[in-house]
Specification:
Blueprint (H helix, E strand, L loop, with lengths): L2 H7 L2 E11 L4 E13 L5 H9 L7 E13 L6 E11 L4 E8 L5 E9 L5 E7 L2 E11 L2 E10 L2 E14 L8
EC number: 4.-.-.-
Family: Belongs to the CpcS/CpeS biliprotein lyase family.
Protein name: Chromophore lyase CpcS/CpeS
Length: about 180
């Protein structure tokens, strides 16, 4: 498997279950969501717009995803609905960077780095004000994807999370997004 295979395997409708723990103060949070993930062609207007904004030739891109979600946090009644685009650009055989935009916004939201591991895991790192978030994703089986994430502030880990995602089917994208 390589990064392109990983992105292709991500396509479909997924049930997402996340448990996170904020270390100081100790507080846990559980979230559940439906995810719709689509692989986008490099000539998709949204991907062309990202490339234009980042002054990037899409030839170097290894793949692009549209991820839509509809979920809830435990103990909250309101739903969290949204969508994002991720564009992966190679800078070597097993690493590169990714660009992320929020649907409905014209500006880049984030730029981070990815690393494809020999264990067939994808690690994403994103630096933010005074800290960094690191997320590792891998497949336990074809229809079970797992991820862990750590959010650091300086040298201190502030939040840890574990997610399991179960493929519900190869349905088209969420029609509401």
């Amino acid at each position: 498997m390589n990064i392109q295979d990983f992105l292709q395997q991500s396509v479909g409708k997924w049930f997402h279950h996340r448990t996170s723990l904020e270390l100081m103060p100790q507080a846990s949070e559980v979230a559940k969501a439906n995810l719709w993930i689509d692989l986008l062609p490099m000539n998709d207007p949204s991907i062309v717009a990202i490339c234009t904004q980042a002054n990037l030739d899409p030839v170097g891109a290894v793949g692009a995803l549209k991820i839509s979600w509809d979920g809830r946090l435990e103990r909250q009644d309101n739903s969290h609905v949204g969508a994002t685009h991720l564009l992966f650009v190679a800078k070597g055989e097993d690493q590169g960077y990714f660009l992320q935009t929020q649907m409905g916004q014209d500006t880049l939201l984030h730029q981070g780095h990815y690393y494809w591991g020999s264990d067939e895991s994808l690690t994403l790192t994103l630096e933010h004000q005074g800290g960094m978030t690191e997320e590792r994703l891998w497949y336990a089986s074809e229809n079970l994807r797992l991820r862990t994430s750590l959010r650091h502030q300086g040298q201190t880990v502030q939040v840890v999370a574990f997610c399991s995602e179960i493929r519900m089917g190869l349905a088209a994208a969420n029609p509401s997004n």
